[in-house]
Amino acid sequence: MTPLSVAFFALLAWMGLGLAGSIMVRASGKPLPFLFSLSILPGLAVVVSGLWALSGSSVYSRTLPFGLPGLSLQLAQDPLSSFFLVVLGFVSIPVLLFSTGFFRETPPEKAGWLLLWIPVFLGTMGGVLLAADVFTFLLFWEGMALASFFLVLTDMEEGWVRNAGFLYLLMAHIGTGLILLSFILLSTGQNGPGLSSLSFEDITHAILPRWVPWSVFLLSLAGFGAKAGIVPLHIWLPEAHPAAPAPVSALMSGLMLKIAIYGLMRVDLGLLGIRHIVPGMGAIVMIIGSLSALFGVLHALMQHEPKRLLAYHSIENIGIILIGFGLFLLFWTTGHFVPATVAFAASLFHVLNHALFKSLLFLGAGSVVQKTGLHDLNALGGLIKNMPFTSIFFLIGALSISGLPPLNGFISEWLTFQSALWSTSLQQSFLQSVVVLSAALLALSGALTAMCFVKVVGVSFLGNARSPQAERARETGLPEKTGMGILSLACIAAGLLPFLVFRLLDPVVFSLTGDALPMPIQNHPWLWFSPISFRQAQYSPLLIVFFLALVLGILFLATRRAYSHARVAPTWNCGYPARRPRMQDTADAFGQPVRRFFAPFFRMERTIPVPGDTRPEYHLNVRDPFWSNLYGPLLQMVVFISEKAEKIRNRRISQYLLYSFVTLSLLLLYFEERS
Amino acid sequence: MKSFWVFLGSSLAKMVLVVFLAPLFVGWLNMVRALMANRTPPGLLQPFKDWGKLFTKEIIIPEGSSMLFRWIPRIVFSLLLMSSLLVPMTEPHDDGWVFGDALVLIGILSLVRVLMSLGAMDSGTPFGGIGGRREMMVGFLAEPATILVIFTTYLVSHSTMTFVTADSLQSGSILPTPSLVFGGLSFFLILLGENARMPIDNPATHLELTMIHEAMMLEYTGPSLALMEWASAIKILVYLLMGIGLFFPWGVTGGPGWSGLLPAFGMLAGKLFMAGAILGVFETLVAKLRIFRVPEFMTLAFLLAILGFLSHFVLET
Amino acid sequence: MSHPLEQSLIELLGGLLLLTVFAMLSIRRIFSMIRIFVLQGLILSASTFIVGLVSGEKHLLFQAFITFFLKVVVLPFLLFRLVQRLRLRGDVEVVLNVPVTMVTGIFVVIFSYAVASPLSQMAMTVSRGLIGVGLATVLLSFLVILTRRKAVTQVLGLLSLENGLLFSATNATYGMPMIVELGVALDVLVGTLLFGVFFFQIRESFENLDLERLERTWED
Fold first, then answer.
1. Which of A174, A194, A214 is the last residue of a domain?
2. CB–CB of B100 and A596 under 8 A?
3. What ipTM is given for this predicted complex?
4. I want to staple A447 with a disulfide (CB 3.0 to 4.6 A). Which of A298, B74, B140, B192 is the partner?
């Protein structure tokens, strides 16, 4: 019995439960959402397996007795995959719990569909993490893409959902193609396995020609980046996330994007090997990361549909993860191991954080959409009165994602800053500038995130209801509340006890770099968290919370009388007589300063009424500039080329044969030249 | 490392000191402003009188607001009071009981800003929304600028701990480096923006076209208003203490024992006196910016901070 | 370094010089711009003076005095008078909005630092680190010229550009008396340009803008 076998059987169980669930729903003709709770057990098993493996530092591997002829599937579990397994298992539990309540009213055929594909999706994600050869990796990777594609298509009777799904499928396959290319390049090195054996172990030892590392790096960055949603390959994210049901979006955004990050780390650090990385690659990752972070949050601020907004925030958070990863590559390759390991830990910490708070926020947004039936922030308002639990959980998630102490989002951003501070020890002024500017952009996007979530929370949960649906909203059921509650507690716990997460990260960092995290030895690690040295930085969330509670307690006692006699009266509002809910700030109004300040980042269409207009109307449409500036021309080009190609297609068979003949001759000529 | 009880006692003493020092500072600032405008100044203790009176009045909660609205004044006050423990004032610092570094302080202040904006939006009025939005607008440029200022001071001390930075600057040369000059200027602009001072926001008017901070305060009454105003006073004091600790730390931290406390306190009082005078004169001399110009002002702070950090690479290596 | 105090003073002045150019980029009023230009001249002459003291080069002291006389006394006086006679008041028209200009400015600074770092390793002067600042001043002044429409502000940008050239020359190679000559020659050039641009711009405004007001200006 090894951690790997536990994890493996858990994955099998997920797949089996998926099949069984869908069959049972079909047989009974009822939605049976409680079946989701069965899938929690494999989730628990995956967490146990990950923690178990992380308690040591050994690598477990296993060859399965099936697969292609001569190429049986190989699995392996090292600390990196174990860490991601913990994240996967832990987040899957509350999301599944949430689903048991959330899909109560779903029609049976859809429930059966979800019961089949959600566990399969989870299982394939775990499979990607355990894969130890190219074939297995791609098999699970594609399985994951297809399962999520089917999940996006849950409401496929709606046209825009189908469009979103196909866009996602297209981007996913472009990504897979690039990943495949990078694998092929990796396996063609000298001493390499060629294409006969595709195990990761053999690829690692290959000696690569000089041009290969850069190509592999760029291909993998683009390939996994398309899945993770880096700019400019992010366009599918804001379409697919709103299309899928909330728990599915939570899984896709909270987990699947992390699997793509895992793939990037696996290929760049594991297969390519850290010896092939040069500082320029780190700089590229950092630049893309900071651009994604800024771009994501700016567009999130423009959205008024909660799930779309969260999708843009996923782009931002992937950017933050990549900033940490880029810092790691950059510092490591220039020989600064202390900030490098801290940056890597920050990046992995943010992987966990984002998985926690983003799934929490998606679940919260899903509850709001389900209970009000509204997809527009501008029609909500005052939900905290009718949905207190959902509101508080959402608020915790919002404070977390905004990187505010004492919650968990703060810690990963803080660690990234602590590592970026070392930029002074870099030699080249270009790299120094990149690090400083990335840190500045990270800080900027952090502050903008806070603004965005003040908008979301303020407009939807606080103030007065802007529509009757919002006024009539009811609190979600117990399973939903429990699911969100678990995630909120996890956010708080990771924020208050960051050293526990660091314990998990230490073996991961050690196994990939050979260096332990530079945490100083101390008596009370739970009280003072210090990533590098006591002199450079310390943080004591528990002391802060303790003193905060102390002051708040005294203040509460001192003002209790005044507040208990508080009188509720009509709002003063500077004495303006008319007061309607619609006079409150809307989500669009909230984004106005940003829209003005960062105008070049948006593509805006506005109609402003002229004075004297009897029926004044104000319209604003903010779009992603990448659609019109990159994908539009690209599409036109594809259409153009296809039309040209059309002309040579419609010919007689002899002409087709001629094409083949010419191609063959040219290829022969080429190989003759080479030899 | 001293025992927990000594630590608890000294921290409580510091907080009590901050609670009473903050209104005094605001009183002094208002005196300077009044003198500059040829008005008879109110007494130094005027804030105590104003807020004391507010504490005797009743609290009115606007219709439609939630529990958050009741709690925000108390939470904001506690957070700001707590944050004063993260900046060096007069006390010896060589003990192991630390709350966090300057970045944590920025994080807490950012949390305060978020909560205040949420409280404003909870009142459900158009003015509250405007105030919250504008506050966040100032914040989204001020916060990264503050973080970059910390980056700049890190260059001197290789630490983000405010106490360590203050310490290593004290032992260094008296002449500031260019990066510190840039950082200091940037911090001054941030201080003005974050505390709703003059070119950004006029603390004395309630003109709806321009107000930021006051728009968020409109619906608070009685003790809750007093708490919010007191909290703002603490906030400006915390910012000043942070600025003093990072850029003018001479004499802040007295010797290792309790004996150095009195002269250090005298130095601090002198510095705050000067800071109030400078701030008051500056506020009288400049004109209020249009709200659209506020981002430009804060961009300047942001860019100065970046510039400060960059000039280290070239000038000081 | 043998002169730590002077060294840090020069660095400080270098930083302040950069600050003045950024102030020029961000400020919208003509009078304030001229005042900043005065400040810039003051900083420039002070830093030239200190470099002269430290290095013992007599002509640098001389040059510092010339700079002071020309940039702090004569030119500002001329400019103030011109602005008053032209009755140019209020805001400067900017082509780009200020934040965008300033962000561009940051990239210009990074660029010039990166370009200057090999140069400053070759130079042997006390203040070689400041070449980057000089270069940045030159490029930022270009930005000032590019983003302003009014003639006076463009001339101010040009003058500040010249300050930057002088500053980098002083700090890169203080041994050469040619620098003084170059400086004076550039001043003359600037003088001619000043009036050339003026006449050109005024004629253009004559056709486009407020005709009456300009008529009156001519009659004075």
1. A194
2. no
3. 0.94
4. B140
Q: Which amino acid makes up residue B153?
A: T
* Interface test mutation site (partner A, options C110, C117, C121, max chain A beta carbons within 10 A): C110
* Residue B192 included in any domain: yes
% chain C with pLDDT above 90: 2
Long-range residue pairs from C110-113, CB within 8 A, at least 24 positions apart, any chain: C110/A429, C110/A433, C110/A437, C110/B310, C111/C139, C112/C136, C112/C138, C112/C139, C113/A429, C113/A433, C113/B310, C113/B313, C113/B314
Residues of C with CB under 8 A from a CB of B: 4-5, 8-9, 11-12, 14-16, 18-19, 22, 26, 98-99, 102-103, 105-106, 109-110, 113, 116-117, 120, 129-130, 132-133
CA nearest B123 in A: which residue?
A463
Report yes or no on A636 lying in a domain: yes
Q: Chain centroid to CA A630: how far?
A: 23
Residue corresponding to tokens 């070689």: C128
3 state SS of C29: strand
Residue A362 domain-assigned (yes or no): no
Which chain A positions have a beta carbon within 8 Å of C110's beta carbon? 429, 433, 437
Buried b (16+ CB within 10 A) or exposed e, A40-65: bebbebbbbbbbbbbeeeebbbeeee
Domain boundary among A194, A215, A236: A194
Three-state SS string across A507-523, please? HHHHHHHCCCCCCCCCC
Conformational region of residue B124, where left means phi above 0, alpha means psi within -120 to 50, and beta covers everything else: left
- Residues C110, A433: C-beta atoms closer than 8 Å: yes
Q: How many domains does chain A have?
A: 2
B38-88 pLDDT, tens per residue? 999 888 999 999 999 999 999 999 888 888 999 999 999 999 999 999 888
Is A484 a member of any domain?
A: no
pLDDT digits (tens, 9 = 90+) for A116-155: 999 999 999 999 999 988 888 999 999 999 999 999 999 8
CB contact under 8 A, A433 and C99: no
The answer on pLDDT for C220 being more than 50 is no
Total domains, chain C: 1
Residue whose structure tokens are 């909120």: A488
- Say yes or no for a CB contact (<8 Å) between A429 and C100: no
Residue A313 banded pLDDT, cuts 50, 70, 90: very high
Q: Using 50, 70 and 90 to split pLDDT, how confident is the model at C197?
A: low
Structure tokens at C198: 């003026």
Residues of A in contact with C136 (CB under 8 A): none
User: Is residue B8 situated within a structural domain?
Assistant: no
Tokens of B302: 């942001």
Is residue B24 situated within a structural domain?
A: no
Q: Is residue A295 part of a domain?
A: no
* Phi, psi for residue A73 in degrees, rounded to 5: -70, 135
Angle at B64 between CA B59 and CA B65, to 5 degrees: 55
Confidence at B92, pLDDT banded by 50, 70, 90: low
3-state secondary structure of A64: strand
Mutation site for C-interface testing, chosen from A426, A427, A433 by largest number of C Cβ within 10 Å = A433
Q: Is a pLDDT exceeding 70 seen at residue A350? A: yes
Residues A56-73: pLDDT tens digits?
A: 778 888 888 776 666 778
Euclidean distance between CA atoms A369 and A473, whole angstroms:
10
Q: Examine residue A406 and say whether the peptide bond preceding it is cis (omega within 30 degrees of 0).
A: yes
Domain ranges, residue C27: 4-219
Query: Is B303 domain-assigned?
Result: yes
Q: Taking the CA atoms of chain A, what radius of gyration do you get in angstroms?
A: 26
Q: At what angle do helices B261-285 and B222-247 cross, to 10 degrees?
A: 110
Tokens of C176: 């050469």
Range of the domain at A633: 629-674
